[in-house]
């Protein structure tokens, strides 16, 4: 059995059936906490152009794969749902010189916050994009890029291939609907930061 670090011909036949049922054009990730000799055979059996990434804390190995930047700092707050909006407002007020990107789980939340936050935070430029505002999306991103101390409200649409340097804070207001692996093999939360 592969899960115990060894496998036999029956396991290879079962694995072959699974691989034949999958599309030929795919990305496959194989993860193991241990590196067994049989795993190398398994890599040759089911994967083309396999790349091996080894994560280690040993300084003997020259190749170390870093998952997050060393300067990244993560913070979180636990509170009731009733206090979330006020906490967000207080946080934004405390960051008067910062460029902030805030992620919400739905288009409705983005539209709602775009309506109320400019009234509450009257001196801050606030931009918004979500999946239902495709026509205006590029313009809003350009404005956000060029405006200092701006706030961008977004669904996960901003997490897909849009690079904006000099963002001081990324806030995940809601838990994303899906924390799935994307085409590039990273979790949504990692992409947002």
Automatic annotation (TrEMBL):
Enzyme's top EC category: hydrolase
Keyword Hydrolase: yes
Positions of transmembrane segments: 100-121
Keywords: ATP-binding, Helicase, Hydrolase, Membrane, Nucleotide-binding, RNA-binding, Transmembrane, Transmembrane helix
Catalytic activity: ATP + H2O = ADP + phosphate + H(+)
Residues annotated as domain Helicase C-terminal: 84-193
Alphabetical list of CDD domains matching this protein: SF2_C_DEAD
Superkingdom to which the source organism belongs: Eukaryota
EC number: 3.6.4.13
Stored InterPro entries: Helicase_C-like (IPR001650), P-loop_NTPase (IPR027417)
GO MF annotation terms: ATP binding; hydrolase activity; RNA binding; RNA helicase activity
Coiled coil: none
Family recorded in the similarity comment: Belongs to the DEAD box helicase family.
Function: RNA helicase.
Entry remark concerning the domains of this protein: The Q motif is unique to and characteristic of the DEAD box family of RNA helicases and controls ATP binding and hydrolysis.
Designated name of the protein: ATP-dependent RNA helicase
Organism: Dracunculus medinensis
UniProt lineage: Eukaryota, Metazoa, Ecdysozoa, Nematoda, Chromadorea
